# Entry
Amino acid sequence: MYDDSLHTHIAAVERLADSGLPAPADWQALRDRWQAAAEGHDGGAQAALNHAIVTGDTEADLPVLTTLALAEAQATPVHRATVRNAIAAAVYPRLCELYGTVAMKNYTAAAGAFNKAAQRFTKSAAIVDPEADPTSMVTADDRTRKAWTDALIAARELDAAEPVLAVAAELCGAHTGTPEQRLPLTVDPGIAHRRRLWEAFDSTGRCGRWPALLKLATIRALPDPGSLEPYRRPLPLEVRQERVKGPYVGIRQVTVDPCDAEHISVIASSARAVVAGQP
# Structure
């Protein structure tokens, strides 16, 4: 268990390091010691003994190395796994503790990169529809054509920044493994209709999901990953029976979206909050 968690943690930190968000030096040193121990688990003592004998290393303790090599030779895979897991159990919490000193700093940097891309995309989308037909750009003015191109570049930047943001949030203790967690990480739902927002999140196109989302909500990185709460999928549509009014009495089936009532309630709550905030 600890070995798996340790590898997941190391992979996440190294992913951020590759994006220019490094771990503390103490974290890197402990990671290096762990990897050296793990790699030397099979044949480490024998290799050290061989090297000492061949090179005539006078600093090496040959009796100790010989004893370790004998023990190593008799160790079964179960023995090796037991030792490795014991090391991992000690190393993992310490690595988390060391990384915790820069976790929020790195998240803030990742959020900043995401928000810059979001602002560029929003600015371009205010000038031209990012999903506009390419043929319409033939007769468009230079400003419109540039905005159309810039929107695609910004969308690709958002695509690249979003997984980095998610990893940074994970290293702050948040869970971002599901779409229900990723949506609120990158979008402020505001008063958007839940079903329409999820349709936008699942949409694809020239610029991915971002144009559809921007029409309904604000694209932004969640300021505090500790406040991340899943944004659930919409409930299924309901089919209800309604009595037909008029000269002929009858029953008809009507499809009802439970998100409609929720949307009305959210709008009303938002309006009350605005009124309450007025002097």
Observations:
- Residues 238-277 form one domain.
- The chain has a mean pLDDT of 91.
- The chain has eleven helices and four strands.
- The longest strand covers residues 238-244.
